[in-house]
Write the structure tokens for this entry.
Amino acid sequence: MRRIMYHFLLLTSCLSFVLVSPAMDLKKHKKEKMAEDSSEVKKSYEEKVEDFKAKIPFDISGSMDIYAQVNFLGKRTNDVKYRVFDGRANSFELGMFNLMMSKTIKRVTFLGDIAFGPRANVANYSANALVSSTTFVLKQLYIAYEPVDGLKFTLGNFSTFFGYELIEANNNFHYSCSQAFLNGPFYHTGFKMNYTRKKFGFMVGFFNDTDTKSDADRNKYVGAQVSFADDNTGLYLNFLGGNQRDANTDTIFKLNYKTGLDLTFSRRIKGKGTVALNAAYYMYRQKLLADPTVINRPKYYTVYVYGNMDLGKKQRGSLGARVGYFNNTDAIALDGVSAHIADFTLTGAVKIGPLRLVPEFRLDYSTSKPFMKRNGDPSNIQTTLGIAAIVGF
């Protein structure tokens, strides 16, 4: 009897072990899975984006923006004069979605940048530029080869090296763009060579007519740049010159040679913000077709000062201002309007993960009264108040 009881207890213990062990393993697995899920939840948006990018066989980045603003003119007009990408008021407006894909294999880099939306249309001089369309534009497309460290050859279409501001809203502190950007080049198509040694850089290039994907004649532009840049400071001196064909003046002018000089300086003040300066000068040399001995030299120039500061220890907010002057007394830009123009822009920024909300107030002043009062009379002053939502990835 004792032997029977002993065997019964032994069998019971074995069955209990067999039944309990899987349950214990299941509980352990659940705890491990919960820990993994918890770690996934704790990952930031930036970390998740980087994890996603790591699975793609090429580097990917991009941005998108949307805005709305008022011009305080009631029902008089929705237009905002002398603005590049935000020329509509009293309306919710689309900006641009762009997707940039690149890859470097050994010493060869290739990049494609496609864009969609009114902002992309304006930058590429499309018809009905400020009206939303269903057409994608090729914003950048180039191949670069770096035979040795510091020396790079680039062929294709790329953003301009002139100025302080860029086409993508995500790359600018202010949402509206300056007169310097409006009246400067947007991009170039051609060939350039960059040489970098320590903190110094040198560039020379040959390009089609400014802001064209294809050239209508064999005249080319020459561009050059000398630069100094480190982690906190950037200093760039730029040159651009060439015989520009102008469909509106070819019947009048025999030659229309354009020269541009540009100086850009920026300084990052650690933990406080950034200060910057951009000055540009453009001059034409025009020979009359009727009398080549008559030479005109109209010109225009711009000067802009920027400053912004970080708010809070986590730097999720910032406040900045931009003030500038544009001399167009020779009426060579802005559709032939002869004027001195000044503008002041006050901009804030609040970061919410990948989203940046940008409230902005801007005041433009012109000596030629091209703006409008609320009663419809001409005015020297134009004011706007708007907000933009920008996402970069």
